[in-house]
Amino acid sequence: MGKVSRRRFIMSAAGGLALLRPALRGSAEASPESAAAALKAIRGEAPIREGKVTLDIPPIAENGNSVPLTVSVESPMSTAEHVRSIHVLTEENPLPNVAHFTLGPRAGKAQVSTRIRLAKSQKVIAVAALSDGSFWSGSAEVVITLAACVEE
Amino acid sequence: MAKALIRMPTEAKRGEVVEVKTLISHPMETGYRRDSMGQPIPRHIINRFVCTYNGQEVFRAEFFPAIAANPFLSFFTVATETGEVVMQWTDDQGTTQTETVRITVT
């Protein structure tokens, strides 16, 4: 009886810990899985092919609070064939989404630049949705010397 | 909101692809930081940017907390006709800032 109750105790304690773990990690932690989920929200069931999308970002960034990023997509940007949107995601930031850009043939050139925050060294992904319904992606690994202050 | 800087050509040839560079001052508070008392600092970011050219939307951006403070944004548009390029930023508190640039197309 004593043994069973101890086993029960350990089991329930382990169960409790398992329940607690996501709470401890909180929602403020992204992972490649949440990036994948964010990606799914963008593309639905459509496949994503690698290519056409180029990320221009420093491979080593000193300050994670402001990392310059340029995303360009190979496209003639005509009425018939253009980039509908560009999405930037990260794998290890608290939120996987960084920015969504909506373009059209009026953009003339499928290229956007901004500055982003990176909580740690990680992979930055850009996905382009084209007018023909296809999705293309590109990615870049960035090493951060000083991370963006997420905790304080 | 405060100061916005815009750099784009004010004259262009018809059909020319012009670059629009914008910079606006904003703290872009992520919502993940805590103050000295340990209280979470509420999120306060610019979440939307829209650019219209003579009333027609040509570019739109949706921002998340991973955009750096004082957001810089650069994009392109085709100079189709003489008119106004209007840029509008909206933040979490509903504050908007609108800037207009006149472009002469020859």
Explained architecture:
The complex is a heterodimer of chains A (152) and B (106). With 152 residues, chain A is an alpha+beta fold. Chain A has 2 domains: 27 residues; 116 residues, SoxY domain (Immunoglobulin-like, Sandwich). Chain A contains 2 helices and 9 strands. The longest helix of chain A has 24 residues. In chain A, 35% of the residues are buried. Chain B is mostly beta strands and 106 residues long. Classes of the chains: A alpha+beta (152), B mainly beta (106). Chains A and B meet through strand 6 and strand 7 of A and strand 5 and strand 6 of B. Strand 6 of chain A pairs antiparallel with strand 5 of chain B, so a sheet runs across the interface.
Strand content of chain A: 35-45%
Q: Sheet with the most strands of chain B?
A: 5 strands, mixed
- The percentage helix of chain B is under 10%
Global geometry of chain A = flat
Share in β-strands of chain B = over 45%
CATH architecture of chain B: Sandwich
CATH first level of the largest domain in chain A: Mainly Beta
List keywords for this structure.
heterodimer; A: 152 residues; alpha+beta; Immunoglobulin-like; 2 domains; six-stranded mixed sheet; three-stranded antiparallel sheet; 24% helix; B: 106 residues; mainly beta; five-stranded mixed sheet
